[in-house]
Amino acid sequence: MSSAGLHDPFFRVVTAPAFSRHHIADLAAGRCAVLRVPELLSEATCAQLVDCLLTADFDSYGRERVHPAVMRFGVGVSDHRTEGGIADTYWPALDAARRAWRSLPLPFDPLEAARRALTSDWPGRSGIARHRGRELGPGVAREAPQGFLVHFDDAVREFPASRRDDPPVAQLAFNLYLAMPESGGETVVWRHRWHPADEAFRPVNSYGFTEECVQGAEELEIKPAVGEALLFDSRNYHAVRPGGSGRRITLGFSVGLTAHGELLAWG
Ligand SMILES: O=C(O)CCC(=O)C(=O)O
Ligand SMILES: [Fe+2]
Asked: Is the confidence at residue 43, as pLDDT, over 60?
């Protein structure tokens, strides 16, 4: 509820048994704010994936930009940004990340499985986004013990100079929760999108903003269960609360809906 006590009936959480085309369209159109799909994977499968992932060498996002630290396995394009475009360093980093993922003794490719679950009912083409003909990364595994600051994700703003082959007309964030702490680790989404005045609330070089930035905006707080998947419009400001005891390990990627009706993922 906003500070004025008024409520936008479209700013709501919807729980569904699967990612239907209608639910995804509702999110893109702003008829709902967050889509929850419980039990996308079983708890046993999540535990098995966590065991494998914990043998991997997690890297951290750029320490200056992302603080408190977020550990990551796989490459994120936001760490390879230069003058509003994708830096040349991204491509060798992506090759190394692909090799590292392949070297894990995973029972199946969980990012591919997640993408399939997300797009199985989608009527248009789906797959991984491309930049000048080259496929971007499929997503990352992340561990954020101290959570994420209030921020938004919007490739249109972050990469204004990027010559994406298929620029998104709507951007969503997909996350699958493999391990969750007993307390904390909630995802919060605010009914607020970037405004130029918000830059006053961004510490220098940080990806995130202070909480004042979203003060008074309606918010939704979700504590996903292990095996659950969340999809939300990442242009709305969002944050992850610090976790108490227990690890918080997720698989995540961005999803763009293109003008051709394609649903494309990237990491
Ligand atoms: O881990 C989460 O729940 C959300 C992380 C996030 O900021 C995102 O997926 O864009
Ligand atoms: Fe985000």
From this structure: yes
> Which atom in ligand 1 lies closest to the alpha carbon of residue 174?
9
The strand pair at 229-233 and 168-179 is best described as antiparallel
Q: Is 223 helix (H, G, I), strand (E, B) or coil?
A: coil
- Please state which CATH class domain 13-266 belongs to: mainly beta
SS3 197: helix
Chain mean pLDDT for the chain: 94
Predicted local confidence at residue 1, as pLDDT: 56
* 15: three-class secondary structure by DSSP: strand
- Using CA positions, which residue lies closest to atom 3 of ligand 1? 187
What residues does each domain of the chain span?
A: 13-266
Cβ-proximal residues to 106 (8 Å cutoff; 6+ apart), any chain: 49, 52
Q: Which of 25-39, 59-73, 93-107, 113-127 has the least mean pLDDT?
A: 59-73
Residue 265, number of CB atoms within 10 A of its CB: 25
Tell how far the Cα of 153 is from the centroid of ligand 2, in angstroms: 5
The Cα 120–Cα 30 span in angstroms is 21
Count of C-beta atoms within a 10 Å radius of residue 22 = 11
